[in-house]
Amino acid sequence: QVQLVESGGGLVQAGGSLSLSCRVTGRSFSNYGMGWFRQTPAKDRDVVAGINWSAANTRYSDSVKGRFTISKDNAKNMVYLQMTNLKPEDTAIYYCAADRSSSWFVYTDRSTYDYWGQGTQVTVSS
Length: 126
Hints:
The chain is built from no helices and eleven strands. The chain has strands at 3-7, 10-13, 18-25, 33-40, 43-51, 58-60, 68-73, 78-83, 92-99, 115-116, 120-125. The model has no long low-confidence stretch (mean pLDDT 95).
């Protein structure tokens, strides 16, 4: 059974930094592409960043490019999202997701992802 558990959310002032972690249980983690998504009451769950199974490829939404960094540690079954220069519009629930396809491509469509965490709240005050 595959489970994803996010941690690291919290309250931060605008301009600050926060690091999210996602622990994945399951024997095939090294084969998974991973993604971070976020959702607010006013918006659908949209991709923030993604990384392919080997960590060779990454993709970012335009809104976070240059500020967020996704990384993957296959030895520890962990994926991370380092967020810097945070803005109030980054406030959302952040979800970690896993894609079993072992593709070189990094998917941004949430329907591609097979497993999801419960989410962690990130709040950026102005």
